[in-house]
Amino acid sequence: MDLNYTPAQQAFRAEVRDWLSKNVPAEPFASYDTREGFNQHRQWEAKLAEAGWSSVTWPTELGGRGSDFIEWLIFEEEYWAVDAPMRVNQNGILLLGPTLMEFGTPEQKARFLPATARCDAMWAQGWSEPNAGSDMAAISSRALRVSDGDGDHYVLNGQKTWSTRAIFANWLFGLFRSDPASSRHRGLSYLLVPLDAPGITIRPIQALNGKQAFAEVFFDDVRVPVENRIGGEGQGWNVAMATAGFERGLLLRSPARYQRTAQKLVQLYRQHQVEADRDPSIRESVLRAWMGAEAYTLASYHVVGRLLKGATIGAEASTNKIFWSELDLQMHETAMRILGPRAELRDDPEVHDWLEGFLFAQAGSIYAGSNEIQRNIIAERLLGLPKS
Length: 388
Hints:
By secondary structure, the chain is an alpha+beta fold.
């Protein structure tokens, strides 16, 4: 693994840094789990797209810059270093986008990818159901295929839950059981569903921080054209596993995010070092957080180096997901310990972001596939242990 940047990569970094220095908003936005904040973030994403920064690894004709993963890592490092706004269309850009690149038809790519980069298409994820959370193969929402005067359609019935920002999105990608006689991983189809279609009801779910970050989505005879299916009929599990790989791998949580958090944690510790050093384990936790972020960065560059040589990431994405979710929680728990009793004072400017991050980090071991399930995957597929 060569950690020396080429002249072209250094020039790319300079270009990113220059654009961000001229365009990052001077004042922070409201939370993107509020209507005001969502609209602010959406406008920012559109501005990124105009300059080709919304999705740097996508082809230029589809709204990106045609960059490789090394340049993506560089972009992320510069983006997080200046505390640029959080990305509101991650589901579309980081999860659905790569899935469409791999499985979509040329028509689907042309229809959805530029619109996603511009944030005209904002995406929610339709995986989890009341009886199908970590066990995604238990999905029961139905997609009955019919042909009538309106053409070839699927008629959807069922319910999805824990759909992130579904109350703000206008599209949903998800799995539906298209073969009523099937079970488990078979007979599922991957569909793109407009959330303004007749028969859809969306009910918000309040998160720990009081924001409406999630929603339930109900389908009552919702009609979706067959051309909105990604991959073959009944082959949705394979497509969804590719999406899950992007979710658990590098794309959803870049190492720069954790490097920046580690830097802020070190700053917080130094500001309160006299009090913090009364418990020597706090200093150790800060060091562990910083080393964890650096280790994650080096590991990511190693993986990218392999990808550029033609390797693929399979079940090992599960190790990645466990690492970044537990690192995120450990960092924020350490910050709470440094802040002490003040950590519960949400209106304290020094506390607010750390408390919000701490509350969000609680879900890290659950979303993108619970860590218990990821450990089973590692045991069975990487270590060759028998199924329990």
